[in-house]
Amino acid sequence: MITSAEAVEAMAEVVSWEEVPESLEHKRIDYLAERKRSLRARYAYGIIFLITNLWAWFVRDYAQRVLPELHYMKSCGSGGNDCFHTLGVLRVSLGSFIFFFLMFLTTSKTRKLCEARNAWHSGWWGLKFFILLISMVVPLFVPSYSLQLYGEFARIGAGIFLLLQLISVIQFINWWNKYWMPDEQKKQSCSLGLFMSTLFYIASMSGIAFMYSSHAMKSPCILNIFFITWTTILLIVMMVISLHSKVNRGLLSSGIMASYIVFLCWSAIRSEPANEECNRQKQGNGNGDWSTILGFLIAICSIVMATFSTGIDSQSFQFQKDEVKEDDDIPYKYGFFHLTFSLGAMYFAMLFISWNLNNSAKKWSIDVGWTSTWVKIVNEWFAASIFLWTLISPVLRQSEVMDHEEPVQEIDNSAVP
């Protein structure tokens, strides 16, 4: 016979088994809500980053006229000049860097949605707004010589940011190439990939022709001719290697990369100081016409978007990409996200001061000067080199494996009587 105690235990087991699926479903709903909060938080941080950089532009161009009371601060020097123009940009950049680096330190080890650090990343906006204000005020009391040291440090941080952005771009190009690669189940992708390859190469060659006609028609423009010609050579080399029988990567990835390096070359030439011989763009008149203002705002928004996309692309920088995702895993790496924004703050500072710690940039200008030109050109060459290495390295590794296997086969054959 079944005793009353055994019956109670059996009923308890039945109830517990019925409650388990319900509790799991509630957990999944909670995790989904936390995931959505985390994804929405990205845009809030992006807006904060945009606002701080617009503030840096305002401090550089207009703050001396609007905020004359800063000359009372000892750290701002005589007339408050050390809090405007180049040093003013560095102060705002330092404040933005402090905020995002603090967020990096407090969220870098977050793994699960149920952790307190996840709640800190996705919420507590009142406290974070207060921390942001403190971060912006503290650099006002930093002496000028310390800001110069930060400027040198920011150059290194900006270079690291460019490298991270470059890796992210190359990973995106590889993903795009795989998405449109010919497949047995998706035969239509072959024609689409071919069409896009043709489109990108036409755009690249049109860009080359435009740069030759606009910036390299006169004999004194030897440097521009060299930049454009070398870009053309890199374009051809990437195309030839992509079509090589041992590489066999097709034209899509090389076409996208060709368009990217042509854009970098054009951007580098546009960053040259304006003159009548080799650069048709006119110097700003102090206030800037509508095209200058529109180009300036588009440049700021595009760089913010590039920083945002690099920050959420943590998958490109993981050595183990086959990890199993669970329901309570965070949707992206918070530490890497905030670290990218802290480096992006340094990069923005370099753009606003044209990588020059001594001279202030002109109003409504961004990233103009010979230093900016060479930074972009080196970035272009580095991008092409890394892309070519991604094409060649699998072939080299395969040849090394074959070289190691051949001696083993010879030994095995000699052992046979």
TrEMBL record:
UniProt feature coiled coil, ranges: none
Alphabetical UniProt keywords: Membrane, Transmembrane, Transmembrane helix
Membrane topology recorded in Swiss-Prot or TrEMBL: Multi-pass membrane protein
A GO CC annotation given for this chain: membrane
Transmembrane segments: 43-63, 83-105, 125-147, 153-177, 189-210, 222-243, 250-270, 290-313, 334-357, 377-396
InterPro entries: TDE1/TMS
Entry's localization field: Membrane
Pfam families with a match to the protein in the record: Serinc (PF03348)
Similarity comment: Belongs to the TDE1 family.
Protein name: Serine incorporator
UniProt source species: Prunus persica
